[in-house]
Fold this protein.
Amino acid sequence: MNKATNAASAKAIPLRVLIVEDSEDDAILLLHELRRGGYNPQYQLVDRYETMKQALDEQHWDIVITDHRLPNFSSQAALDTVLEHGEDIPVIIVSGSIGEDFAVNVMRSGAQDYVMKNNLTRLVPAIERELREKKIRLARRQAEDTIEYMANHDSLTGLNNRTEFEHRLQFALESVKDRNIAHALLYVDLDQFKIINDTCGHAAGDEFLIQLTEQLLKPVRETDTVARLGGDEFGILLESCPLGRAKRIAEKILSLIKSFKFQWHNNTFSISASIGLVMITDAQHSYLDVLSEADMACFVAKDLGRNRLHVYNKDDISLIQKHGEMKWVARVQQAIEQDRFLLHRQRIVSLKNAQDMPAYELLLRMHDEEGKLVMPGEFIPAVERYNMMQTVDRLVIEKAVAFIRDEMRRNRVAKYFINLSGNSLSDDSIASFLRDQIHSSGVPPELICFEITETAAISNVNSALTLIRDIRSQGCEFALDDFGAGLSSFSYLKTLNVDYLKIDGSFILGVVENPMDVVIVESITKIGHVAGLKIIAEFVESDAIRDKLVDMGIDLAQGYGIEHPKPLETVSD
């Protein structure tokens, strides 16, 4: 073999080809055609079921080329053997003669193509086409597997997500009724987890949850299910587990969490957890009953001092109502009367034009009875459940409009984003209240953009359409917050006439390292721009994230990497 031949062979494309053929001469012709077409075939000849099955079991093949008719085998038998093996391997039939009816039937059975022996010039193009199609099929399956995984798993920790956990919980409940076996559910809620987020940002909080996941998995068996149910809430389904063993596992988890030390730069954190335990019995009607009882037991554990386990009993409901939500409702009502609600603002910067008008999001906070700052996650759930959110929304609007008016008097003009709750969608008078506030203050409506979460808008789309129309007709703008968190986001963009999309921060945090988050953010950005909307990224906590967002064409950004929220009184001097 000369140097030119060696060079050509080195550049040839490797091709693992299984040839079903009893004629060496015909096989040599096939191999010659493959080499002439730029391939370097690594091949094996087989001519019966046993040798073909062994070859398929022992090695991966890129393609199968089979003669149509062999003394002890056939192209249909070869095709059946490939299909039986289960691997996606294209099959091409090569024949001296093949009837049209048979060719149609064998193609319907799964063969990719057939080539006549007197026209082997079709062989290489057919192989190239089928290899491309195989790559496309593989990419599609991988995408489908990824989508299925994302649908069932938490993107941060890799644990099962709430949807999958609920499915397994319902199955466990049915098995209790059918087979009279015992299961237990642990509802784990971290104590004071927000301290990490407030001190070091969401990136630190996310890393803490990732590391903590390892601690949660240590005491459980492979047959048990650990899931992330929310921000800092986890569910553990202990199958075929009596109460005594479930208690011991829960106590072990409490001990592991309490002893876990989390390092973030120069900070060390150690937190505890509260656990609610409920036994799954045939007295519960659905998984929602089980989750509700476990949640209540966890609430009692927190109310009794945290860092403890509480086993559910029927008296917990009244205890929670007395010491939990009702207590918050009274505290919120008192805070309103004593004017202890306040607003912070966080800068939203343009990533495309530094000369754009300054913009800020206004964020609600509350001072407690001792003057300590309380974040909305502490009191908003109780406020929403007891229908006080409309009152809080109006209070926020009043304070926001008054601040914007005062800023204008100081010749400081900016656009302000104000959050509205989902409860206000059913408040028919909120739009007129807003109109009165704007007219009485003299604030230009174009300086105000209202936000509502995508989930709230989609959950009550007709009311959302009415509110968005009324607010935009007054000259204000509208934004969808936490966009992408829902599964049907894009389909509503044609319906909801908004001005901005705020991409859910969980996707933004991963754009530097997570390819899936990159694809999701790019898709939202492209579709949003086609719809004529401006795209805002939340949770921008580093220069690396900001630089990546610039490359992706995001319009605006906010987060700890740009500015921490500041009280309005500190910026109005």
In short: The two ends are 86 Å apart (CA to CA). The first helix runs from residue 3 to 11. Residues 1-8 have pLDDT under 50 and may be disordered. Residues 3-149 form a domain with the Rossmann fold fold (CATH 3.40.50.2300).
